[in-house]
Every structure is written in C-alpha cells, then in structure tokens.
Amino acid sequence: MYVTTLEVKHFRNIEEEVLSFCDGVNIIYGDNAQGKTNLIEAIWLFTGCRSFRGAKDAECIHFNHAKASLSLDFFGENREQNMLLEIENGRKFVCNGVKLKSASKAIGQFLAVVFSPVHLSLVKDGPYERRRFLDVAISQLKPNYAIALSNYNKAVAERNILLKDVAYHSELYDTLDVWEERIAYYASEIIRQRIGYVNRIKEFSTEIYAGISKKKEELSLSYFEQCPAAGSTKQEIYESMKNLLYAARKNDILTGSTSVGPHRDDLTIQIDDLSARSYGSQGQQRSAALALKLGEAAVIKSFTGEQPVALLDDVMSELDTDRQNYILNHIKNWQVFITCCDPTSVKNLKYGKAFRMKNGSIV
User: Fold this and answer.
1) Contact predicate 138/199, CB 8 Å
2) 253, 161 contact by CB (below 8 A)
C-alpha cells in the first residue's frame, strides 16, 4: 500500500498544498514548528482513527477557516483508490465515491502505522496509553472491534451513573444486572481480541527489539487482565467478568465508578524481566516503543497482506547510527514518510524524495 497524492486545504497551519510522493522514502524536513508533523497527521487521519497527537477535530482546522478538506489517492488491494475527508462539526469520509455513514466505517480502508515522540508514552506513562495503543491497532484490523469498544464504554458510563443513584435509591439495585451483563458481553470480545493481538505482536516485536539491541537485551510482552479465565474463550471471559462486577458492587457504589473491566487492564512491557517503565533507560524505552510500532506494522501485513504506510515523525534524530541503520533496514520495500529538521540525519537513505517545509508550505 502506498500514497500517490495528498491534497490538503485549511488543515492546521497548511493553507493549501497538493503533493505527489514516491512509493519509497519521502523526507519532509525543515525547522521546528513549520508544519511537518501536521502533514504526517493529515495522512494518518485517513486510517479513520483519531489524531495520534490527541487533538480534537476542531483543532485541526486552520484558524482562518470553518472547515478542513483533505484528499488522498493511494494504491491498495491491487487498485488505485481515493478517500476524501472533510472536518467540520466532526469528520466526514467519502471512500471511492461512496459516502461513509461514520468515521468508524473508514477504519481498515487505508492502513498506516505512525511513530512520533508522543508514542514514548507507550512505555513511560500509565496503562491508558498502552490500552489505547492496543485499541487503535486492533481497530485497524477489525473495525467491529471499535464498535464493541464504543458500546462497552457507553455501558460502563451508564453503570457509573446508576451506581451513584443506587447510593440514594436502593430500589434500583437489581437494575445493575442489566448493565453488568451488557458490560460483560462487550468486555469478553475486547479482552479476547486484545489477548490474541498481544500474542501476535510479541512474536514480531521481541525479534525486532533483539535486532535493535544486538541481542544484548530481551523484550517481553504480556496482557494483564483482571478477569483471567481458564480457557479464555469468549463465554468463559463473559462469566468471569460478570462475577467480578457482581463482587465489586459494594465498593463501586461507594466510589461511584466501575473498578473492574478491560478499561483497567494493561499491556506489560519488560526488558530482561524488569519493568521497562520503572527500570528501563531512555534508550531502552525508546527502542521498546519502536519495536512495538514496527511489530504493529508486521501484524498488519501478516493479517491483510498489505504493507502499511510508515509515518515516522522526528524519530531518526534521536537514535545512534546503529539503531538508525537497523530501523531503516526494516522499512525497505515500504513507503515511508520521515520528518526531520536536518535531512542529513537520514543520510543512509540513497533513494526517495525530499520536501522542505516552511510556514505550512512546501518550498
């Protein structure tokens, strides 16, 4: 899969640009705060996922305009395709001339992986970032997962409201059963998919990390769940989740929130059997995050047969020569977009196109 043309209008600090890319390496360089990351973000949004920077839709619109319009021509599934994205009171997609009912319907049409400095939070920060990584990665492969996740979050929110009401209206206690069954139903699908995904990505990521560290260190990944079930079938997870929710009722009524479920689970990342978050050096943490993202790309290719587009935002400048060379060897035969301040930071790349960005424009 590769992008041929990107058209951007009124997106962030980019007034209007039409760019044609090569199917290999595309370098976007320039000083800080010129719009390089904005360009990467514009491509990423065609995955149907939210901004990897955590931005709201309204923040993506140029301050002088009411809406942003994006167009992407790309080659995938052995044919040329086009997607349109309009950002105004939400996101509206058109894929190959067909209007999509919601942004979630765009997920899986265009495949990409992105790594930027914000993704160091995968290792450095709390469980939320690691859950979000799993959710976004799985949603690209299985759009129905995003729907299950949305329904789960809604059910948890409704139970939380009810928990607060039960504290003052005991007659509502039995109605907790309805929401707990719904939570358990969607949780069983979420947990099952997360466990399956972690089992797949760790095969690739551990090998990649071994290459980055020259086999001096070992990366290990595991999914930490609150309701382990013996066989981990959907039904077994469902029953285990229901029992946990019931057992937690008394405490949850006191706190007014749901204390168990996949919204509390975590992805455990260890280096040589020690927590990467607590004991890893900055270099180890960065390498672990990179291994996860490259592993994500490998899973996508194994699952779909399509090589996702790689978006690397200000990554190479943070790596020593050996680690740069290893990463670059892993993106051969990919289309990759690399942002950097100085193009010589990727001097080992012999082929590709370079774009200099200044004040939101290619010059």
Assistant:
1) no
2) no
Q: Between β-strands 353-358 and 361-362, what pairing exists: parallel, antiparallel or unpaired?
A: antiparallel
Q: Please state, in angstroms and rounded to a whole number, the distance separating the CA atoms of residues 288 and 43.
A: 24
Full DSSP string of 14-74? EEEEEEE--SSEEEEE-STTSSHHHHHHHHHGGGSSPPTT---GGGGB-TTSS-EEEEEEE
Question: Is the CB of residue 147 less than 8 Å from the CB of residue 104?
Answer: yes
- Three-class SS of residue 340? strand
Residue type, 84: L
Name the β-bridge partners of 338: 27, 312
What's the token pair of residue 24? 């290999």
Domain end call among 305, 321, 351: 305
pTM of the full predicted structure? 0.84
List 93's β-bridge partners, or say none.
85
Range of the domain at 212: 118-305
pLDDT of residue 349: 63
Q: Do 92 and 218 fall into the same domain? A: no
Domain total in the chain? 2
Q: What is the CATH number of the domain that holds 228?
A: 1.20.1050.90
* Nearest in space to 337 (alpha carbons), one of 74, 146, 98, 87: 74
pLDDT of residue 348: 61
| Cα–Cα separations (whole angstroms), residue 143 to 23, 105, 114, 270, 298 | 26, 7, 18, 29, 18
Let me know whether 102 and 126 are in one domain.
no
- Extract the residue ranges of the chain whose pLDDT is less than 50: none
Answer left, alpha or beta for residue 41, where phi above 0 means left and psi between -120 and 50 means alpha.
alpha
In this structure, how many other beta carbons lie within 10 angstroms of the beta carbon of residue 161? 12
Distance CA 357, CA 355 (A): 6
pLDDT of residue 227: 73
> At which of 288, 305, 322 does a domain end?
305
**How far is Cα 241 from Cα 259, in angstroms, rounded to an integer?**
12
